[in-house]
Design a protein that fits this description.
Layout lengths: L2 H18 L12 H4 L5 E6 L13 H15 L5 E5 L8 H14 L4 E4 L7 H4 L5 H11 L7 E5 L2 E5 L9 H4 L7 H13 L5 E4 L20 H8 L5 E5 L12 E4 L2 E5 L7 E4 L7 E2 L5 E4 L5 E8 L2 E8 L4 E10 L2
Parallel strand pairs: 1-2, 2-3, 5-6, 6-7, 7-9
Antiparallel strand pairs: 1-13, 4-5, 8-9, 10-12, 11-12, 13-14, 14-15
InterPro entries: Calcineurin-like_PHP, Metallo-depent_PP-like, STPP_CPPED1
GO molecular function: hydrolase activity
Organism: Tumebacillus permanentifrigoris
Length: about 325
């Protein structure tokens, strides 16, 4: 076969291949739909009220098992990090905290950033020699934290972690509310003021008064007025709280107040429905108001940060699926 025939044959074969191959099969195919899906700049899970207990008793197993299940469930979506916004444990003992850390190490697959909840101070009820200071030291040591309140930057997202600084000393007067020192308030103000403009996510276990999940008079932060005033001066702040366990899908758990977007986190361990119906197992809280626990449920939030928006999803871990509830916050 001479060279001209070889060239002609090659051209014919190429034309036939172009006709036979589908676009997805050709060497120069356009990207598949999966490849064209927009990827977030950052994504992370936000959990709360895990309530791990180290005692190997049936009544205490759900906290540990549900925590492990939630972390494995979120790991499928490759988050950059996980936040656990307080009440990692029920009693706050060194053994409880150690188990919570062990579960995180085994199942998270990414960094985990915690805040302290009121239950993480509870070991004082069992151990007279325990104290708020010892509870804090144990928490910091277990999770290798530099301080009780701290901030981080991840892929353009500013993360601010706040924690209640007293429990047992304030409990008779403040109940289960969060108490923050003036030093922490000043640090929060300076951190907001000195940071460049960016999407900012704030985490505090107890909600601010009059925002989300306020089912008791003693659940909010004592310094709610000061904290809201500080946050309201800055755009694009998203504030997450837990503590009340109110179902994350409830309408009350996504509100905007003075420009700040507030979201309740439900509970990994046991979400609660706030209802006017005295259903079996419900607990009366005020006139015509009942709290109904859902021990079979387990839920958290999942955040995706894009250049022009923040997307907040609700993950139903007990079903391994997404809620229909999706919140979008524009950034432009």
């Amino acid at each position: 076969m001479n060279r001209s025939i070889q060239i002609t044959f090659a051209v014919v074969v190429a034309l036939l291949l172009c006709c036979v191959l589908t676009p997805a099969q050709s060497f120069y195919a356009s990207p598949s739909r999966a490849e064209r899906v927009e990827k977030p700049l950052a994504s992370f899970g936000v959990l709360s009220d895990v309530h791990v207990v180290s005692d190997w008793q049936p009544a205490h197993l759900n906290g540990a098992l549900k925590f492990a299940n939630a972390l494995r469930d979120l790991r499928t979506y490759h988050p950059d990090f996980i936040v656990v916004n307080g009440d990692l444990t029920t009693n706050g003992s060194p053994e409880d905290l150690s188990l919570a850390r062990e579960i995180a190490n085994d199942h998270a697959g990414c960094p985990l950033y915690p805040t302290m909840g009121n239950h993480d101070y509870y070991h004082s009820w069992d151990n007279p020699s325990w104290s708020d200071a010892r509870a804090q030291a144990q928490f910091l040591r277990t999770f290798s934290l530099p301080n009780l309140y701290y901030d981080k930057w991840v892929h353009g997202a500013h993360l601010i972690f706040l924690s209640s600084e007293q429990y047992f000393r304030q409990q008779k007067e403040r109940g289960e509310a969060a108490w923050l020192s003036n030093q922490q308030l000043h640090w929060f103000a300076n951190t907001l003021r000195s940071a460049p403009a960016a999407p900012t996510f704030v985490f505090l276990h107890q909600p601010l008064d009059g925002t989300v999940g306020k089912s008791d008079p003693d659940v909010s932060a004592v310094q709610s007025v000061e904290l809201l005033d500080l946050a309201s001066h800055y755009p694009h702040i998203v504030w997450f709280s837990g503590h009340s366990h109110i179902d994350a899908e409830a309408p009350s758990e996504a509100v905007v107040k003075r420009g700040v977007h507030f979201y309740g986190l439900g509970s990994v361990y046991e979400p609660i429905e706030l209802t006017a119906d005295p259903t079996p197992g419900s607990e009366k809280r005020g006139e015509g108001l009942y709290l109904h626990p859902h021990p079979e449920r387990s839920e958290s939030r999942f955040v995706e940060l894009y250049p022009d928006r923040i997307v907040i999803k609700t993950r139903l871990h007990h079903l391994a699926t997404w809620s229909d509830q999706v919140e979008t916050i524009p950034l432009r």
